[in-house]
User: Fold this.
Amino acid sequence: MKRIGLRSSLYTAAFVLVVVLAWWYFAPTSLGGSTRYVVTNGVSMEPRFHTGDLAIVRPASQYRVGDIAAYWSTLLHTVVLHRIIAIHGTRYVFKGDNNDFIDPIDPTRAELLGKLWLHVPRAGQWLNFVHTPVVATVICALLGTFLLFGLGKPGRRRKRRRKGASGSHLQGIPLVNKSPDRGTGPRTRFGAFLTASALAVAAFVVLGAIAFARPTTTVTPATTTYVQQITFGYRARARAGAVYPTGAIRTGDPIFLSLVHQLAIPVHYTFTSGAGHNILGTEEIVLQLTSQSGWGRTMVLTPPTRFTGDSTSTVVPLDLGRLESLVGKVAGVTGMPTSGYTIAIEPKIHISGAVGGQPLNLNFDPAMNFEVEPLQLVPESASTTSGSSTASSAAGAGSSPSALTATQPGRVGTPISTPASITFLGVSVNVSALRWISLLGLVMSAIAALLLYLRKRGEPFEESVRIQSQYGHLIVPVVTGEDLGWPPVDVPNIKALARLAESGQRLILHSRSDDVDTYMVNDEGTVYRYQVRPSKVVWGEWSENTTPVKAAA
Assistant:
């Protein structure tokens, strides 16, 4: 017995060790482990990796150039498994073995998911198949059934071995194949109900594992557009006459330098987007005076000024007499003609904020151009001279008779959260609803199993049933044989008889005649016996010596 106990302890310790090691190395992150299972897709890592391969990655204490590692790509919104080709400070540069370009994203150490630990070709296809809800439910249900009913087989095998080993010691008492126990019908129904409850619990546990392993919402990228626009104009006052009957000069009218000496240029900036946004910005307006020879001069018309909101308007004065004087001085010193100069009014807009929950950091600096001719100032269409943005953007230019405009459209990727669902046989079920269904089903199945157990526990039964339940691994059914020739030794209860059987490695022989259950142990010629008449008891009230034969007589 000590040898068997030591062997069982060693088996248990080995099993626990194997489970701990398997959990440490193979437990996925969704269950609290540190291992990730990546199913490869594409040709970027050929010829080593192909579509459908399984890559098992684990966190590493150090990542070196040449290691194959996985990281989450914010650009592709998926896990990327590529090779590290360079390390720049805290940034890692990746490239696919079969790619002729470097990955556009350089993740940091915190964004790395792990280094390649194990590569299993074609195993990813089977993993995706097992992860389907139907297959996972069937596997877990079969596993639960095996755990419920498979553990009893070793005991039965041990009983058969003991039965065969001890049969030679039972003189005059032949064995039979069928047990004389009664009442197997209700016990069978009870086992069927208990099995159904256990399967229901296992099914709802699997359903809950699937539901809780998936997020309740999915993030889908959506494009949010915006437009920056600056509208230019000009206006001035001159002496009323044949050229300017009212004395007012508006955008689109010719500007004669002999009649117009001061020009006012309104600059109106607007930011428009259909999504919610919050904008802060600065505006600076400069004048660029350039000649065809390459000479130029920059003048600040309006210093950098902060603004909030979607628009700002500024009117800048332009002293044409001063500009003519400057051009004349340059021409007198250099000998160049006074024609061929360009005046550019350039607002420099820088905005920051958010559109649709995404950050923005944009520059917009179009220009309104005037050609300086000997007798007049000729306005040209507005154009975008330069621009930069953290978002995807494009610039365009346009003009009209009444206004000069420059626009710069752009777009940002805005994530939209939508309820996640699981599709099974063409029916989509919300993940949140599936979580509640699994929880309620698990609770109801557990309550049903508990009520079934309590009801069964409260039903009266014969003492022989309880004896069979507790000591069935030692009991062998027999039929009455020849007289043994000597009186048996009666013991006070079944526990004492079981202790004798276990100490001598014997079996308990059971027979029934005249409504008396007889339990015997043949210990080297001495037969120990315990007899009891049928009596109805409840599980909690049962004892080993309820109604012995002599007391009943």
Observations:
- The chain has a mean pLDDT of 76.
- The CA atoms of residues 95 and 101 lie 7 Å apart.
